[in-house]
Amino acid sequence: MNTNYIGEHLLPGQLGHFSAVLAFVASMVATVSYFMSVQSKEELLKDSWKKLARWAFIIQALAVFTTFGSLYYALYNHYFEYKYVWRNSSRDLPVSYLLSSFWADQEGSFLLWSIWHSVLGLILLRVGKKWEAPVMTVLSFAQVCLGSMLIGIYILGYRVGSNPFLLLRQAEENLGLPWVSNANYLDFITDGNGLNLSLQNYWMVIHPPVLFLGFASTIIPFAYAFAGLWTREYKEWIKPALPWSLFSAMVLGTGIMMGAAWAYESLTFGGYWAWDPVENASLVPWLTLVAGIHTLLAFKSSGHALKSTFFFFLITFILILYSTFLTRSGVLGDTSVHSFTDLGMSGQLLLYMVVFVVPGFAMLIARRKEIPSVVKEESTYSREFWLFIGSLVLMIGAIQITFTTSIPVWNKIINGLGIKKLLNLQQDIAPPSDGVFHYNKIQIWIAIVLGLLTAVVQYLKYKDTPKGFFTKKIAIPTILSLVITGLIGIFGNINYDLYGAGFLVAIYIMLFCSVYAIVGNASYIFIGQKGKLRAAGASIAHVGFGMVLLGILISASKREVISIDRMKMLDGGFFGKESKENPRENLMLPKNFPVQMGDYHVTYAGDSLAAGDAKTYYLVRYERRDPENGNILEKFTLHPDAFLSNRGQQQLTPNPDSRHYLTKDIFTYITAVPIKDEASDTAQYSSHEVAPGDSVFFANGYMILEGIQPQPNNRNYQAEPNDLAVGAQLKVYTKNNEQYNLLPVYCLRDSTREISVADTVAPLSLYVRFSKILPKEKKILLQVKESDTFKDYIVMKAFIFPFINVLWIGILIMIVGFVMSIVYRVKANKAKTIKS
């Protein structure tokens, strides 16, 4: 085997791999040292172990940062000798997208996760105080598990992790490049494989870091809960854990909704949420985390629900690990549009989950009788009772989503254990045929209950509430919400009937509950908080939550497809049997041919391919005219883009474009473009001598010559001073009762040269020439052709999303509320510490 390879840059890979191994070893030292610090009885020994653990964690953090720097350096300099660099980047990628290529694959995403753990751990070194050792034991052990994903070494014949610095020539499969064993193999590599087109978007630069910070931060509430069980200090961990849990819920929720915004602007879900398994896998831990925050608040004020708080904080991080297994084991490959393929680490991912599940829940079960609880039952008129009910409702929603998302896992278990054969089952469990409705018909009732509780619960007092007090406080918000809901119902024209009258009733109930959540919480700031905004973070976050519910409800139930194919041009299997596209909801736009679409006339005006950009940008012009006088009321141009891959089957990767208004968005994306082949047009012109009133038949209909027009206005004809030109006025009638006007031109230029300018009915691929005037016969000669290679068109889909901004504004208000709550709780904790 050749050992002298020309042009390789080995130093970044060697440094990066060494740093990855160092981080793995240092995190093990930190874990053991922090563990011994917790277990030691003598203060001197405890401090000695803690000091060693701190240095070990700092070293591992520096090693993780060095690993990141080494990989990014290789990406930035296009060192394609590295498999990771070759597979996920190319020379034409902008610098910003090099970050996207960093976390585009599994190794990079694990490294990003480890970076955030390191950052959070360094913060905990400063603020952890008495909880530093037990909490950092858990965090350091998580770093051991993540570090094992990146070392890519063999232990007892088993490969542990995947090395992101593996060279192309070292890859077992060689990625289909047999010449990488040559000494000069780098001469054959002019560019990398490139970044997935759907990831080349600014949201992909900012969404994954925020989402992974959310993932990483969930370990801190888990670690505090674990530490409380471990040290048997069952109540003391609550106070420092609350700000961290609020931070985690805020960041994870922000990351999820940034993903929704990415889907809305860059993918073709037809919106911001499609109940895709990967979306679900990130949403479920957020639901259980929010449930844990509310039971924690109930315990702080009443002593109830401490066991539930332990459970919710433990299960949240476990669900993060489960979602990691789902998205990175390849099990969702057939059900999700954006899950990773299997890197052969499924066993490691399962082990990672098990080593956190078993100790945490084993201690919770074993020590359940030691956990303090209030013997007295909560009053049904107490805030803590309904906080607990709300948390259970969140858990029910999480269970329904998890069960359906896990159908591929259930099938693997059933097949693996032989249950399918034992029960003589003929088929695997099938996912729901209408996935969106399957989730919505359950989750809408979850949202109804949550909206109602969000509006009402804060008006209750802890432990017990006088009935008259509650009624008096809640009356005005309730009446106001009913009035607003009634006005929206009367003037909003919400008549979503796709799933029947029962679902429409649920929509109207949810409408009231969403409005109630907004009005109830806004009113509570003045009624309950007396206008003190410093302590109103929860109410502001709840106002945002109500707006999110309202935005989802209105934008989904009032979403209108305006690209209706009224001419039925796409019938007959245009999209193929496997496509989920409804041909009646897609519109063909021939180039430079205005087509009526809702209130607009839409024209495909051309396309452009920017230098260094693999995407084609399509110019789609919208015009809205006054129906009475034809004056243009509005016009704008959208630029949806698409990439047509020629690898194997023709595959379109589109990105939408939207026109944003205060009260709506017009959302447009490409669903089909003609395949660019070089086949010649075999259709021939046929000649017809016609007089005014005569008809000419063709395959899809007929045309009538209505007359001869002097000074014709044909967009393809450019008049010159000495021209003598006339046009043939033709009325075209199709079998589907559509009508078109044609005006082919015959021109005598400079009294000698004959020019024929054709006109076209692009949707019919119909071309007509005015070839000659026949004065003796008082007729003209027309030439007619129906092309069989018509290729100058696009097919697009367009929606109107009404009041989508209510959703986005609601998310921002939720974030503001979370930040205010975090600041308030941190200050309150400091004040209590100073007093004590």
Can you describe this structure?
- Helices cover 49% and strands 17% of the residues.
- The protein has 836 residues and is α+β, with helices and mostly antiparallel strands.
- The strands form 5 sheets. Strands 5, 6, 7, 8, 9 and 10 form a 6-stranded antiparallel β-sheet that branches. Strands 14, 15, 16, 17, 18 and 19 form a 6-stranded antiparallel β-sheet that branches. Strands 3, 4, 11, 12 and 23 form a 5-stranded antiparallel β-sheet that branches.
- Helix 13 runs antiparallel to helix 16 (435-456) and helix 16 (435-456) packs antiparallel against helix 19 (537-557).
- Mean pLDDT is 86; it is low at 646-650.
Layout of secondary structure:
Blueprint (H helix, E strand, L loop, with lengths): L10 H29 L3 H34 L6 H6 L6 H8 L3 H22 L4 H17 L4 E3 L2 E3 L41 H16 L1 H13 L6 H29 L10 H26 L3 H23 L17 H21 L16 H23 L1 H10 L2 H4 L12 H22 L10 H25 L8 H28 L9 H21 L2 E2 L25 E4 L4 E3 L2 E9 L7 E10 L6 E7 L2 E5 L5 E5 L1 E4 L3 E9 L13 E5 L4 E4 L2 E10 L12 E12 L4 E4 L2 E5 L3 E5 L1 E3 L4 E9 L4 E8 L6 E10 L1 H32 L1
Antiparallel strand pairs: 1-2, 3-23, 4-23, 5-6, 6-7, 7-8, 7-9, 9-10, 11-12, 12-23, 13-22, 14-15, 15-16, 16-17, 16-18, 18-19, 20-21, 21-22
Helix pairs in contact: 1-2, 1-6, 2-4, 2-5, 4-7, 5-6, 5-7, 6-8, 7-9, 8-9, 8-11, 9-10, 9-20, 10-11, 10-13, 11-12, 13-16, 16-18, 16-19, 17-18, 18-19, 19-20
